Amino acid sequence: MEQPNLDYILKLSGNDEVVKQKFITTLKNELPFEIEAYFVSLRSNELHKAAECVHKLKHKIGILGLEAGYFVAETYEEELKNNQIKIQAEFDTILYLMQSFVKSL
Q: Which of 3, 5, 36, 38 is a Cys-bridge partner for 65, taking CB atoms 3.0 to 4.6 Å apart?
């Protein structure tokens, strides 16, 4: 399974440490709230709202270099819009990986 990384952030920041740290700080601040909003929507069975959360998270998945994860998120977002959760476990695993990685930064 692919692992989160900072390659894209390093590319965007041009290896500028200040810019890199701004990206990391933003991830650390936003990711937990976006993940929590996703799980709250699921628990409330508000799947369209969960799809909106997945849409936001999808961009962070891409930023963390999870190319296959990005495509999983796209598929899952569409599933949620159609009131399905077939690949929820796969998506949740990606969230766990991201969360662990970001906490370690």
A: 5
List phi, psi (to 5°) of 80.
-60, -40
- Write the DSSP symbol of residue 1: -
pLDDT in tens, 61-99: 999 999 999 999 999 999 999 999 999 999 999 999 999
The CA-atom distances, in angstroms, between 87 and each of 6, 53, 69 are 26, 15, 12
Query: By the 8 A CB rule, do 102 and 23 touch?
Result: no
Supply the pLDDT for residue 61.
97
pLDDT in tens, 8-24: 999 989 979 999 999 99
pTM of the model: 0.92
CA 85, CA 8: separation in Å to the nearest integer? 29
In angstroms, rounded to a whole number, what is the distance separating the alpha carbons of residues 34 and 26? 12
